[in-house]
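Continuing from the previous page of notes. For each protein in this section, the sequence appears first, followed by its structure tokens. Read the first protein now.
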Amino acid sequence: MIDVINLEKRFGDNQVLRGISITIEKGDIIVVVGPSGSGKSTFLRCLNCMEDPTGGQIIFNGADIADMKVDINIHRRHMGMVFQHFNLFNNKTVIQNIMLAPVLVQCQDLRKAKQKNAVTRLANLFRSSSARKELIPVQTTKAKIKEEARAQALSLLKRIGLEDKADVYPSTLSGGQKQRVAIIRSLAMNPDVILFDEPTSALDPEMVGEVLDLMKVLAKEGMTMIIVTHEMGFAKEVANKVLFIDDGMILESAPPEEFFGAPKNPRLREFLSKVLV
């Protein structure tokens, strides 16, 4: 699904990523660990071009999204992102947060289809009957798009037991509730992959479990996920591959049994000795 080839990222004179290469298959659960400042979050943000790579390629569903000529917004529709600090819109209700992206994208597609049809109709006036082009089928309306998005949002809220919070504002939610809403907001776009940037690090300890439990359910359902986290127990239980990044490079990549049980890299052994108790 994703081929990362010699990925580099530089901020001025500071080179943060130094030639990262990895292949991510459909259904993979990739957990990325490493010390603070090692480039983990930058790597994640480069995957959906929230940070423009300085060098290398990111082949996502056959397209190099690191190429500046590519319309990244089209590909971001298929790549969800969950942030450390939730990034919910505080001036919108919970259900409005979940509906926002699906409604925006589908209304944009509807508008483009209508515009293309208008151009085609005009051009057809000057074509022979045999040369006339067919119109793009348009079988929806803005009202129907909003209706369907609301039904989907309510279904997702019911899934996490927060349907009664649909019309409240995020400020009234606990941290764990906010993060679960942020996760299903990503699911509302039916993504091929979801990126998680330290999704539990801003939560109180008692709220971490409810977020990790939802992520475990997604893993069992086959969702492709790339997760930057400090939750080593979660990595052992859920990941099919764990990456250790330090100084902008992948120093070790292995299944969790090998990664935690028989680490090869000396820097990884030192890191694990400090974080595992």
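Done with the first. The second protein uses the same format. Note its length before scrolling.
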Amino acid sequence: MGSSLRELRQRRKSVTTTKKITRAMELIAASRIIKAQNAARAALPYTRELLQAVSALASVKDIEHPLLYDTDTPKRSAILLITSDRGLAGAYSANVIKAAEQLHTRLVADGQEVVMYITGQKGVAYYDFRNRPVEQSWTGFSDRPTYAHAREISKVLLDRFLQPTEEGGVDQLHVVTTRFVSMLTQNAAAIRLLPLVVTDAPGNHDDAGDDLHPFYHFEPDPETVLDTLLPLFVANRIFSGLLQAAASELASRQRAMKSATDNAQSLIEQLTREANQARQAEITQEITEIVGGAAALSE
């Protein structure tokens, strides 16, 4: 019985140490998620204005650009999968990888070849374990992405998209990321980034119900401005996806660590009760032996 009591106390001590770690990770995630939300919110005005400018350019007649050209029979597509570098974030990485696998299956069923690009160590490990090819990967910044990371990724993807299909280029580019809805809800989503499908952003309406957009005068010409804006637009969309994924990762980690802390507390209480019962049984056995020995001596 003494050995059992020692084991229960050792287990309780180990669970208590684990609880301290999960509690610390929960607090760290809670402190970082506010910064991640503020970063995503601060990027919205620039994204909104850039979207309006690109929408105005795309609406100009007789303008042709390779990023706007959509082929009827795409032969090859690229997928940018945004995952996390670290675990202990619940089902965050599993959900986004599942969404990428569903997109991959759908593209292959359409007769397309799929080229994978991945950010985050979890996605890289998933494909390495299954010996599946990855064209290029980026790691080390999943919870704190910067615009420089987005520019680097967008440059690689744009170069691949602008290559002819016969020389290894892709006809479409898809991004699979996680959208931050709230602290309790984060949804994995697949977005077709290229060719661009520009929609008008919601704005003011006149009496007839039509959208009112600013009047733009493009210099030197719309084609030159579009050549400059479209790479910025693609980099901004990727940056927005990275920021949304970072906020989602931290929210998922905070929720997972809170659940782990609560489970550890429940296990500590259970082990404490079992240890008390074992100690009481040990004391009862010792008293029984003492009484039995005294009775034997008196006889």
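What the second structure shows: DSSP finds six helices and five strands in the chain. Residues 200-209 have pLDDT under 50 and may be disordered. We return to this in next week's lecture.
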